[in-house]
């Protein structure tokens, strides 16, 4: 239905009229209000017209947005969030949950914070709407930032940035009301804004800074290693801050970039540097995948099964196809999850078997999201519902219903997970993945001291603020996908395989994305569906999962049940380790508990048997240090128990256990680091004052605990980039590697700037597009470990050519030229020098460019892993079972520190992920139906600002002399130790061990009731 | 979300008239309604916006008591200085509800009329009794968040924490309609045994116009606690409001309301009886709290609520006894 401008006036505010004010609220002196209330039915003044009913079709309305009147045509059901994003193209307002629970869509209505996803655009009326785009002076077009935006950038109060606009809006509303808010006020003001990357500590700091107050948190502490001198020729530095620094001989090919001095001798690298795209993130300018809108773009919706185990008998899409606006319908043919080794072992007729509630059976694409949703509802699916297994314990019963009728295989992803091929499979039990050394049973029988425990951990969903999504654009000559992914190249590869296209004909783009944490590597089933719809509709198709689908269908940290036994001498020498784990990633493999028990404190005799258990639930996926937090949760608690049994301090025991299993030495970089970290952290947390377990009086008790972190140093050799230096002096770096929020973009600019004597902001970093040289996926803490040596190599190659050209111009030898502080100059004759731009003018062709792949690691003593030590202080209310984390001290090493500011942000995030997992998060499945009960953002509980403790991060600069940067990642190790540290702290507080996560009031009270009985 | 008509009347009569048509539902802050529409739990044909109803967004505090319009937001309940002085526990309850954004949007009327957060009720795929089905899935399902009293027909606890405080203060709800009426808030809630399809006694064509809270009697000391597991935006494990009319250290009369433990806000009658005439100390509070949990019938996964309720109630009774008399700021003269 159409409306002309006159109609719009009907929707303008009218002066208030009516009698009820007098009736109900103005009835002064009335003994009860009832007398006045009679007139609540007061009639409309005769002159006023009856109110106009609008809709359900589109209606024209005007809104005052960021000071400008805007007219738009919307249906009454249109939310303000969608009106802003889809009609006004103000995409800084994000949709995270679309249910008013995450705060990503926070805007101001007349200055008060409001959720645009839960406000109908029609309801805004005459209230002034301010969005993130309108917060800065003069909007976001390069004007002056609002002080809170500026502080967010300077303090690095962001990672992926998807929650940032909402967070900024909440902070701005607070500052307008309270010029000097204290910590509690700030925590309260952003308590409705979820940040999955864990930026809360820096949000608090930013608000303090913007309000001219001194932040009350702990400042970042970076301990630098040794000398500022360059390593002697033919050597590289090896050592760590607080330990010895030695120059070790290395054979470095002539053509490769040479080792740097330590950070003490560098100008850019190692300095805390605000991220270069910070401004784009705090202004809403950053375009995320979910913001992509292509001309003629269709919107897709999936049809999913409400049953967790069923055979699809019939699918009737005819009604959906007939709905006006529907452009394509697709019925799923390919089975999700693991692949049967012998497909003939299952016969379901036409359609894939349903193995979890939420599995996709069909999808539609239509001209609007609303039509797509309606059409999805019109697809009729007939199911034959079968009995389901919906818990790990039920799946292990001898007569349990089978999830797969026969053996299956399933690969992992770039971020880990998965399990070996062709393992044994019996019933729903697959595996084990085994590691074994010596006769464990005999060694344990002979051990003087044995500790053993069974530990259970729950399913955690990734819950990135931006859900999985893709815009697929199938064209004859090329398939282009804009995708919220951690790995542009892995998406490209998967789509090339599925659609049988050459890799060169598939282009995957990810500029900004709102978090992944391991769940966003491949194209995914939903990605394939979107591409298929685009191919059929011959139009771009946008498919974004809603929050329910996100919790259900696209990954989780599997639940585990593990029994761990340690055998030791009375002196605390470890003799044997025995681990058996059963984990379940629903229909997926890869539910192990990592190799912590084998690696962290090695024993001469050990056995690890890790099984996957299938059940009718959504697939697990790699999730921030797959398996490791689960494994360490058990291991570090048992080590504490062992220390208590032997009667020595548990840090002393850890120092004793932390040795090389081959020769009993503690000289490997990782073991040396861990010793230093335990000492530094113990001093900082006040370990010496620790009381005996449960020793405090009263119902509320505090405690201190420790956890150990370790992560494998994994090298991704598919890490290439291109560096271009133009004759005008502009510099561009290109790679398909993307920035998941860790600050990769900024780190790459810092690396280039260091070697070219420029500033990071002088480097144009173009990443996240497979048209550029293929870089690593952002996962497994491998990003910089992979790409950074390639960047230095590309710079080295361009620089060599540049210096040759400049040398000719200056009439000096290239060997005596150096680049520093914006100049190319002779090391011996200072008069022979050119500023950068003039030097670049000497480039013989239009540009110098080099594509470099990652050079292999240099030969040297191995550095298997790296990590850190975390200490936690908690408070436990023994009457309510509520745990509060008061403080975390995190001491970490991760090779050369490229950008300590971003590393600190990631460590904060890892710790907060760990706390959230340990205390709150728990995907709940209904036992009968297998449906996810809390597939939302309020009952699936994610830690918020008020649950954030003070976090004290201490970084130790470290060099292993294996690459030209020695940079390692930090995402994984930051998350590994936290839950274990919390559990040990809870034990110290209450004197009772909690071997089950999450440690909710319910589990805490149950543990207190049960005491320490096994 | 299905499409619908929208109308924004500016008088109560027009609002009631607009609601007269089948399929019409009132829209206030929209916080809960939009959730239900998006989850496809309901598909109304018309939304009647109450935002422009004159005077419905006002608070009036005087000697006779307090009148609060249905459109007053939770943010104002939490922040209004006069209201905070008159009924501190109401402000306390409001300040702990939801999140700053939701408090700025959600209205008092909407808060009382919101539907339960039971995860079976909230999922389209479970045809529970509340949605006209024949089963309560929480009975042998996952009932961690559910009621521990009166939970046999339907175990969904009422989600309003504001109601817990209001009932303790003896609030009455004013209802607009063809026959305007006013009822004690406590009796406004409908137990599942009475009618499982609704939680409040509001007929089609009626609207919550506001709430009246009587002026605090002399000697009233009150406290409110919302016990959560997570400090940032969490539904309560339990919430309790305690209002004691004190004479020195002796309690003359006690009103104790338990939230999140029953399908309606629950009066702890036996606990109230035990406190009346008693000196309020640790022993008395403990006795009353124990009495309050008697007869609890926890379901699978929520037996922790019982000891938590006992602990929180005992603490809140003591906090009430130690609180400043209502109507006076802490530290002020009585």
Shape of chain B: globular
Quote the beta fraction of chain B.
15-25%
What's the overall geometry of chain A? globular
CATH architecture of the domain at 59-114 and 156-214 in chain B: 2-Layer Sandwich
Number of DSSP strands of chain B?
12
Strand order of the largest sheet of chain B: 4-5-8-6-7
Biggest chain contact: A-B, 104 and 91 residues
Multimer state: heterodimer
Low-confidence stretches of chain A: 1-22, 26-42
What characterizes the major β-sheet of chain A? 7 strands, mixed
Lateral arrangement of strands in the main beta sheet of chain A: 12-14-10-24-21-22-23
**CATH topology grouping of the domain at 59-114 and 156-214 in chain B:** Uridine Diphospho-n-acetylenolpyruvylglucosamine Reductase, domain 3
Distance between the termini of chain A: 70 Å
Q: Roughly what percent helix of chain A?
A: 25-40%
Molecular structure report:
The complex is a heterodimer of chains A (1014) and B (334). Chain A has 28 helices and 40 strands. By secondary structure, chain A is an alpha+beta fold. In chain A, the strands form 10 sheets. Chain A has a 7-stranded mixed beta sheet with strand order 12-14-10-24-21-22-23, sandwiched between helices. In chain A, α19 packs parallel to α27 (978-990) and α25 (900-919) packs across α27 (978-990). Chain B has helices spanning 12-18, 31-38, 74-79, 81-86, 88-95, 100-105, 108-113, 161-168, 185-188, 269-275, 282-293, 305-322, and strands at residues 5-7, 24-27, 46-49, 59-62, 65-69, 172-176, 181-184, 207-214, 220-227, 238-247, 250-259, 266-267. In chain B, α11 (282-293) runs antiparallel to α12 (305-322). Chain B is α+β, with helices and mostly antiparallel strands and 334 residues long. In chain B, β11 and β12 form a beta hairpin. Among the domains of chain B are: 59-114 and 156-214, Uridine Diphospho-n-acetylenolpyruvylglucosamine Reductase, domain 3 (2-Layer Sandwich), CATH 3.30.465.10; 220-322, CO dehydrogenase flavoprotein, C-terminal domain (Enolase-like, domain 1, 2-Layer Sandwich), CATH 3.30.390. Mean pLDDT of chain B is 95; it is low at 328-334. The chains are: A alpha+beta (1014), B alpha+beta (334). Chains A and B meet through α2, β1, β5, α8 and α12 of A and β1, α1, α2, β3 and β5 of B. β1 (53-54) of chain A pairs antiparallel with β1 of chain B, so a sheet runs across the interface.
